[in-house]
């Protein structure tokens, strides 16, 4: 495309168009805005409407929220999700950053690349597939690490999925599928740190530990926060892992374990969509606040 | 799933770290050639952690249930057993598993096409045109993209129920096509990869707004089309909660939800199952089939994915 303004008429038209900024822009975003309204805004309003009304469409105040909060399964579900989130976020930050730093230090680029690829592969098994794999891995009768499970004192599947250990198990599954992608990202971010800075530090006598602690980790901070926000928001939505686990253990473990399961059961087992909507609104609010605070405060995105 | 980033500018960071470096000079430690084996050990341990279950899954599909329990977990069964598992699986309720795979393919493909049609022009407009409400739309996109899609599943059910779309495949395809993260990726790409003066030139040469998009921006958009396509495909293929709620008929399940149904038919996990039982190696084979498309995409996308995730970042 050459920059030649030989067409007077064309430039005139440009001026005229400049008087109507936005027409074309609105045309380009129209479809997206329709979807945003239909599948972002409307369901949100709908959930809020249901959360504040009764089955008979009369205003209910906060009674659906108190119903949900008063349900014997509610507080345990909050506790489960909170405990899971702590395990998940801590392991994510510690191991993803740690592994990315180790991979970045590897002298052999080929080995580093291969390892990154191997770490990343389980990401393809996200969702139900990862739960299937881990149901087998956690079953001492067929597990490839049966010796490990037995060393830890587990001889049957039911012992492994005892309620106390579930946050750890869900963390294992989530970490197994999700960590590899984040390691790639952290590695890429490490590559973006100017080699001159690291070289200067090395010449000044900094060891790998000091370089990591004083240069690399501070410069990764933004990405670590971003990862935590996404992992936090995603973690509050725990559903498929406990749901399938409860199927596999005949409801012994994982039934009504998470808030999303509870919302689902309110809606489809108890036929109480209003209380279900109240739980959804709470989860929505949690996700919305986390996202909005991050967008507003982190400076991560420049939305000019 | 990881997403993309914008890196801090090195110019901004260099002065900040300079004093740190000088301080470090005092704590000099010589380490002549001494190799610490710990990092290698840790990396190896994690490699086993990430790879072992995948390898086990591949091998499990080649065994009989008896071999699964008694043979070495990391041994190969036999081609014969693999064949038998395949026959048993495809025979399950008259080829239902293949139907689920076709459903998954149909839903993800239609959603992919619609996502691209919606996302590319929207990202282009947010990056390179001016219109009223642009900033608001951009901020809304950022906030919504950080919210996990599962938050809206039950509310979406209520909405779809009101418009009688429950059980229609569009009840999942349309929500799949709403993909704010894709819009953000396209926005980043267009605002960094295409200089505004290029579009100005096109307009001066008499291109209409749509012409400038079609003739200048679209031909340059291949990398971001591939990138958005990758994330959309993986996210939709692996989605469980939304189709689980919105598609109650089992002949409409995508394969992810179908895996849950198969799980229910495995006697070791569900002792109440009757005659329609599924053996564990068949479940392993079904899991393999369910992940194959995503796995294939993964095998070919790593390098390009990393490049894309750091799109808009400083030069490497």
TrEMBL record, chain A:
A cellular component term, taken from the record's GO annotations: plasma membrane
Q: Which residues cross the membrane?
A: 29-52, 81-103, 115-137, 168-190, 223-240, 276-296
Asked whether the keyword Membrane is assigned, the reply is yes
Membrane topology annotation:
Multi-pass membrane protein
Membership in a protein family: Belongs to the binding-protein-dependent transport system permease family.
Q: In its UniProt entry, what is this protein called?
A: Sugar ABC transporter permease
GO biological process per UniProt: transmembrane transport
Location (main, coarse): membrane
- Compartments where found: Cell membrane
* Keywords per UniProt: Cell membrane, Membrane, Transmembrane, Transmembrane helix, Transport
The ABC transmembrane type-1 domain covers which part of the protein? Answer: 78-294
From TrEMBL, chain B:
| Keywords noted in UniProt | Cell membrane, Membrane, Transmembrane, Transmembrane helix, Transport
Where it sits in the cell: the answer is: Cell membrane
| Topology term for the membrane | Multi-pass membrane protein
Q: Taking the first listed entry, what is the main subcellular location of this protein, grouped into a coarse class?
A: membrane
GO BP terms: namely: transmembrane transport
Keyword field contains Plastid? no
| Record-annotated ABC transmembrane type-1 domain positions | 101-301
This protein's GO CC annotations: plasma membrane
Q: Which Pfam families match?
A: BPD_transp_1
Q: Which SUPFAM superfamilies match?
A: MetI-like
Record has Cell membrane as a keyword: yes
Q: Which domain of life is it from?
A: Bacteria
Q: List the transmembrane segments.
A: 38-59, 105-125, 137-158, 178-199, 220-238, 283-300
Family stated for the protein in its record = Belongs to the binding-protein-dependent transport system permease family.
Please report the name of this protein according to its UniProt entry. Carbohydrate ABC transporter permease
């Amino acid at each position: 495309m050459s920059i030649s303004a030989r067409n007077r008429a064309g430039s005139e038209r440009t001026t005229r168009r400049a008087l109507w900024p936005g027409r074309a822009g609105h045309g380009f975003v129209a479809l997206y805005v329709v979807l945003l309204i239909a599948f972002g805004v409307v369901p949100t309003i709908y959930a809020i409407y249901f959360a504040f009304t009764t089955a008979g469409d009369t205003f209910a105040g906060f009674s659906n929220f108190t119903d949900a909060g008063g349900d014997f399964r509610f507080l345990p579900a909050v506790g489960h999700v909170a405990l899971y989130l702590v395990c998940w976020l801590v392991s994510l930050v510690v191991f993803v950053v740690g592994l990315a730093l180790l991979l970045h230090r590897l002298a052999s680029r080929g080995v580093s690349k291969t390892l990154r690829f191997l770490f990343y592969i389980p990401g393809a098994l996200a969702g139900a597939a990862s739960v299937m794999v881990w149901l087998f891995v956690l079953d001492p009768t067929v597990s490839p690490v049966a010796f490990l499970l037995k060393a830890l004192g587990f001889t049957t599947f039911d012992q492994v999925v005892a309620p106390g250990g579930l946050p750890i198990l869900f963390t294992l599954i989530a970490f197994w599928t999700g960590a590899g992608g984040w390691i790639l990202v952290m590695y890429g971010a490490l590559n973006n740190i100017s080699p001159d800075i690291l070289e200067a530090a090395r010449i000044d006598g900094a060891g790998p530990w000091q370089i990591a602690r004083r240069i690399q980790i501070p410069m990764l901070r933004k990405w670590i926060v971003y990862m935590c926000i996404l992992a936090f928001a995603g973690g509050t939505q725990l559903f498929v892992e406990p749901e399938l686990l409860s199927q596999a253990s005949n409801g012994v473990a994982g039934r009504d374990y998470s808030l999303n399961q509870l919302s689902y059961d309110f809606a489809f087992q108890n036929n109480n969509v209003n209380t279900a909507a109240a739980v959804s609104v709470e989860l929505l609010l949690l996700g919305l606040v986390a996202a909005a605070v991050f967008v507003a405060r982190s400076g991560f995105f420049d939305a000019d | 799933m990881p997403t993309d980033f914008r890196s801090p500018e090195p110019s901004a960071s260099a002065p900040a770290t300079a004093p740190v470096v000088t301080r470090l000079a005092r704590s000099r430690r010589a380490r002549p050639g001494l190799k610490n084996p710990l990092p290698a050990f840790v990396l190896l341990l994690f490699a086993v952690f990430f790879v072992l279950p995948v390898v086990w899954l591949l091998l499990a599909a080649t065994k009989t249930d008896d071999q699964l329990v008694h043979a070495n977990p990391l041994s190969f069964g036999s081609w014969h057993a693999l064949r038998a598992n395949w026959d048993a699986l495809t025979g399950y309720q008259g080829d239902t598993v293949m139907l689920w795979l076709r459903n998954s393919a149909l839903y993800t493909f239609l959603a992919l096409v619609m996502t691209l049609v919606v996302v590319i022009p929207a990202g282009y407009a947010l990056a390179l045109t001016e219109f009223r409400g642009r900033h608001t739309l951009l901020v809304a996109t950022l906030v919504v993209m950080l919210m996990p899609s599962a938050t809206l599943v039950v509310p979406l059910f209520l909405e779809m129920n009101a418009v009688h779309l429950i059980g229609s495949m569009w009840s999942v395809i349309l929500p799949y096509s709403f993909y704010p993260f894709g819009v953000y990726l396209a926005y980043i790409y267009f605002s960094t990869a295409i200089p505004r003066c290029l579009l100005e030139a096109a307009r001066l040469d008499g291109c209409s707004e749509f012409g400038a998009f079609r003739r200048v921006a679209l031909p340059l958009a291949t990398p971001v089309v591939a990138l958005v396509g990758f994330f959309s495909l993986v996210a939709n293929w692996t989605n469980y909660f939304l189709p689980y709620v919105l598609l109650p008929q089992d002949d409409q399940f995508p394969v992810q939800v179908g895996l849950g149904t198969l799980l229910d038919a495995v006697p070791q996990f569900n002792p109440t199952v009757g005659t329609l039982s599924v053996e564990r190696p068949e479940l392993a084979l079904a899991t393999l089939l369910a992940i194959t498309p995503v796995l294939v995409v993964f095998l070919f996308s790593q390098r390009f994915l990393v490049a894309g995730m750091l799109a808009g970042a400083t030069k490497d």
